[in-house]
Amino acid sequence: MKPSITALEGTWTLAFADVRHPDGTRGHDYGDSPKGVFQVDHNGHYAMFIFDSARPRFAANDRSKGTPEEFRAAIMGTSSHFGTVAIDPATHTLTFHVVGSTYPNSEGTTQVRHYTMDGDVLSYQVAARPNGDIPLTGWKRMQP
């Protein structure tokens, strides 16, 4: 039997976007005041957006005229993807089937993340990066 998506259904606001370094210290992955939203519908379709709120604006005020540094800051200061998500409460896993992403290498992948749910706060960790950093993400359910 397929687990119910009801536990995830709705709109969530970003509570934190941190990173745990190999030495055990924890820092911010998307600046001091990241912002984001995670939406899941009753069929498990999702859209997720995380932004570093300190990303610099483009000086030319024209996205087609950004400098290489502005483009780098814009892409490195965001993580966004959409697709379908499934939840398995027995194994405490979320399975994301990524259809589209700001990081093209994620498109078409399946990503499994271990989660915890504490009241209206959902948190999970992403697989370790090549440098050993482990992204930690938390979402708070928005009330209707």
Brief synopsis:
The protein is built from one helix and nine strands. It is mainly beta.
Tag the structure with descriptive keywords:
9 strands, 144 residues, Lipocalin, mainly beta, 1 helix, 6% helix, eight-stranded antiparallel β-barrel, 48% strand
Task: Write structural notes for this entry.
Residues 10-127 form the Lipocalin-like domain. This is Lipocalin-like domain-containing protein. InterPro entries: Lipocalin-like. This protein is mainly beta and 144 residues long. The chain has a single domain (5-141), classed as Beta Barrel (Lipocalin), CATH 2.40.128.280. It contains 1 helix and 9 strands. The protein has one helix at 68-76, and strands at residues 10-20, 26-28, 35-40, 45-51, 78-88, 93-101, 110-118, 121-125, 134-141. The longest helix has 9 residues, at 68-76. It is globular and about 50 Å long. The mean pLDDT is 95.
Structural class: mainly beta
pLDDT < 50 stretches: none
Rg for CA atoms: 16 Å
Q: In total, how many beta strands?
A: 9
Strand percentage lies at over 45%
Distance between the termini: 29 Å
Would you give the CATH topology? Lipocalin
Q: How would you spell out the order of helices and strands?
A: EEEEHEEEEE
Shape assignment: globular
Mean pLDDT: 95
Q: Kindly state the percentage of residues in helix.
A: under 10%
CATH C-level category: Mainly Beta
- Oligomeric status of the shown chains? single chain
Largest sheet: 8 strands, antiparallel, barrel
Total domain units: 1
Number of helices: 1
Which sequence of strands runs across the widest sheet? 1-3-4-5-6-7-8-9
What is the correct CATH architecture? Beta Barrel
